[in-house]
Design a protein that fits this description.
Blueprint (H helix, E strand, L loop, with lengths): L2 H13 L4 H10 L3 E2 L4 E2 L3 H5 L5 E2 L5 H12 L5 E4 L3 H10 L4 E3 L4 E4 L12 E5 L5 H13 L4 E4 L7 H5 L2 H6 L2 E6 L5 H6 L6 E5 L11 H8 L6 E3 L5 H12 L7
Parallel strand pairs: 3-4, 7-8, 7-9, 9-10, 10-11
Antiparallel strand pairs: 1-2, 4-6, 5-6
Helix pairs in contact: 1-2, 4-5, 6-11
Length: 254
């Protein structure tokens, strides 16, 4: 935050030359911290309703610690995605307050109570247990964004009676995230059974002709069912974020 610009903005509000609404919009764009090697966006939550998230996979433990420390100093919750167990242990050694969600491959620091602001439950559905890692990433993101999460696991189309057994849970959900590999047919089946929007997540699970999730991605993009939106392969974070935005009461964050 530039002190001069902040003083000018606040002086304008005090003199009645700048409205409170305009000041809020200006503050939403201003502040960040350049820590050398990373520019940390402190006001992303003010603009979008969710704070900056650290993608841990391409970063060293030291880089994660530096960015997470900067974010934590603002007093909010901190999320690091795509972190293996060895890197997580190195980060926790430096930041003991962080917790490792192993199946989701995420590090979490919860400093603030999560405010529930979803219109209803978000269902996270997996076709098979091999899809659970991506699904848990989506579930964690949705929960941190203030949503009740309901898990519906291992209900793929190879045994569709398993899915029908959980139909009440699916119909109760206000948004459904469907995680599937192989041919990626499950989102189409679910979208034909419920009124809620369906966010489809192709996974890289499958044999040779699945092409690392491309077959599932193309199948989901070609869905004949209405209301299916598709994120990228293995993108649990993107699906959880999109589900939270769709499910947010009152739309834009206040």
């Amino acid at each position: 935050m530039d002190p001069k610009k902040l003083r000018e903005l606040l002086d304008g509000v005090q003199r009645g030359e700048t409205s409170i609404e305009d000041a809020v919009e200006a503050l939403a764009r201003l502040p960040f911290a350049d820590i050398g090697g990373a520019v940390v966006d402190h006001h992303r939550e003010l603009r979008t309703g969710f704070p900056e998230v650290i993608l841990g996979e391409p970063k060293s433990a030291a880089q994660i610690v530096a960015i997470a420390t900067e974010l934590a100093q603002a007093g909010g919750n901190v999320l690091v995605t795509r972190v293996d167990a060895a890197k997580a242990a190195a980060v926790i050694a430096a930041l003991p307050a962080m917790r490792y969600a192993e199946e989701a491959r995420c590090l979490v620091l919860e400093q603030q109570k999560i405010e529930m602001r979803g219109a209803g439950p978000i269902a996270i559905v997996t076709a098979g247990t091999a899809d659970s890692q991506v699904a848990e990433e989506a579930a964690l993101v949705a929960r941190l964004a203030g949503n009740e999460v309901v898990r519906v696991s291992d209900v793929g189309v190879a045994g569709v009676h398993r899915l029908l057994n959980r139909l009440d849970d699916l119909r109760r959900a206000t948004v459904i995230v469907v995680v599937a590999g192989m041919e990626g047919a499950l989102p189409s089946v679910i979208a034909g059974l419920v009124a809620a929007p369906v966010i489809a997540v192709p996974t890289s699970v499958g044999y040779g002709a699945s092409f690392g999730g491309v077959a599932a991605l193309l199948g989901m993009l070609s869905s004949c069912a209405a209301g299916v939106t598709v994120v990228n392969i293995d993108n649990g974070f993107g699906a959880g974020s999109a589900a939270a935005l769709v499910n947010r009461v009152g739309g834009r964050p206040r």
